[in-house]
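Troubleshooting: if your tokenizer reports a length mismatch, compare your output against this known-good record of 103 residues.
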Amino acid sequence: MEDFIKRIIEIDKKAQELSVDKKYMQNKAEEEIQIECKKIKNKIDEKTEKAIEEYSLNLEKETNKKLNKKRTYYDSISNNFDLLYKANKTRWIYELVNRSLDW
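Known-good structure output:
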């Protein structure tokens, strides 16, 4: 009977050890999972940041191209007005004076 009680005590100790080992392994696994999740999140953040930066640069280039086209267009209009003014300045002044006098 005494051997039987000793055997039960040994089995209980072993069960407690296994329980402690199980908890340790679970904690260790959870820590590893958290570390791996952080690594994955960091990789995703890096890729996202890089994609946003590339998109931003492309958008800026495209915007600058459009802006330059508009500047060129409006510069040509302005130049045309300057040429018209230079070509017709005297005649327009004469017409304005005559219209003012006729009024």
